[in-house]
Amino acid sequence: MAFRRRERKVVTLEFIDADEKKLVYEVPYSKELGEKLTKIGEDIDTENSTEEEQIQFLIKAYDAMLGDGAMKVIRERVFEGDELLLTDLLDIGNYIIQEVEKMNEKIVADYGQNFDEEKMAELFAKGVENSERNRKQFSIEEVQRILNDNKHQLSN
């Protein structure tokens, strides 16, 4: 059986501009992505900051996730240059969360409920270690004996 590449695990975020063209950002799925989203919610100070400070905080947070300057492009193309309102940014945040949740469901379906990148890396490392430990090392004499054995001769 041969290895066949599976669908990449990226969160695809699509924004539709005024001309009905898609603006697409792909964010690799990772534990850190979920942590970033959680941290945004924890770090935004809604009680002690102004609405403008909250807007700037969310723009920086989304830029960190989507790529530097992404929110400027989204503002220009999707919002036609209008100033971004806090509700616009909350809508974008909810959309990102929904798309990450969809990818979470795919990950669980493909890898099981307990998927954890660290555990997967640890299991992979153990598999490689076991494979190397089980690999038999042959001396030159053993290789010559095997090749000269009638049962293992190669045909010309």
By secondary-structure content and strand pairing, the structural class works out as: mainly alpha
The percentage helix is 55-70%
Q: Please, what is the average pLDDT?
A: 79
Number of helices: 6
Taken from the alpha-carbon principal axes, the silhouette is: elongated
- Write the H/E string, N to C: EEHHHHHH
| Widest sheet, order of strands | 1-2
In what range is the share of β-strand residues?
5-15%
Main sheet specs: 2 strands, antiparallel
Low-confidence stretches: none
How many β-strand stretches? 2
- Report the C-alpha radius of gyration, rounded: 26 Å
How many angstroms does the end-to-end distance come to?
A: 29 Å
What do these coordinates show?
With 156 residues, the chain is mainly alpha-helical. Helices cover 58% and strands 9% of the residues. The chain has six helices and two strands, in the order E-E-H-H-H-H-H-H. It has helices spanning 31-43, 51-66, 70-77, 86-111, 117-134, 140-148, and strands spanning 10-16, 22-28. A two-stranded antiparallel sheet has the order 1-2. Strand 1 and strand 2 form a beta hairpin. The chain is elongated, with a radius of gyration of 26 Å. The two termini are 29 Å apart. The mean pLDDT is 79.
Give a short overview.
By secondary structure, the protein is mainly alpha-helical.
Label this structure with key terms.
2 strands, mainly alpha, 9% strand, two-stranded antiparallel ribbon
Structural topology:
Elements: E1 10-16, E2 22-28, H1 31-43, H2 51-66, H3 70-77, H4 86-111, H5 117-134, H6 140-148
Antiparallel strand pairs: 1-2
Helix pairs in contact: 2-4
